[in-house]
Amino acid sequence: MKFNENLANLINYEAGKPIELVVREFGIAANDVIKLASNENPFGTSKAVVEAIREYASKMSLYPDDSYFELKAALAKKFSVDEKCLIIGSGSDQVIEFAVHAKANAKNAVLMAGVTFAMYEIYAKQTGTKIYKTKAKEHDLNEFREIYNAHKDEIAIIFLCLPNNPLGECVDADEVYKFLGEVDENVLVVIDGAYQEFAKFKDAKKEIKPNELIAKFKNAIYLGTFSKAYGLGGMRVGYGIADASVIGELGKLRAPFNITNLSLKAAIEALKDEEFVRHSIEANFKEMIRYEEFAKKNQIEFINSYTNFITYKFNELNASDIAQILLKKGIILRDLKSYGLNAVRITIGLQWQNDRVLSELEGTIR
Q: What pTM value is reported for the model?
């Protein structure tokens, strides 16, 4: 059977191993498995969300309000934007898919950092569009400029992951705005802010304010998610914020009821509990210091992270071997071999989880 030729060189996104798979494969009790591979919130989610879902569970047979009015109203208030400037997705990656399918095709190109969120490239390949990447693995806006200026007639979308997944670095907002001012208004610039809650907490200079962004640049879209700081990875709720004209076009690609009514309820309630988010982020950076100190002590190169994870880069040691050894002990880290890196990405866990990870890691690398 023949399929779309764009699928020929397309590989599936490699998700972090689930706890259930490790239990089956290595015979480890589920309670003894530590999963720090998918950047989930180790504190779970707000207790108010859990209670709301319990009370709302009887309505799972019903379709959600497809206008998503209540959630949009809450997000509009939080970010000081008009509700017409919002689109809701099944995770922010679905909004990325909308953006790519709305702008990209076999006659144009997209531009992204050398190492960044894999779904940008995967969605672009689905449309047969050309892909330009910087030689620099992290975001080097000077190199972005060079490539953009050399291929202005081709580039339709520019992806900026701020902070960057899977590396963790983040460009200052004023540098981003300066670069956007040099980009043609017909180029869609996607600012992926999946980890912005963490970045702005650590350094105010990194904060991208959606209302300022879309007021200055009608061709920009800001992406946010409930999967990280809000702890709703399993509920799959994300959003895009852009000029109403952009949202109107992306909305043509959105299927009805693209998130569940339980997901919708969870997101609405999660927004009400900012104290949970603040506590999660404070604890994250407190524990991250331990990973930084461990790396310095053991001469491991790491990237200064503005996220809820840290990336360790190895030279003589094999990162894949390290990840596999720890996996057999019930510790799931993210091997970055698929990104062409001899590195592992480690989600910052709870204190007791980090105790065990650092202890086992030290024994492995010595």
A: 0.93
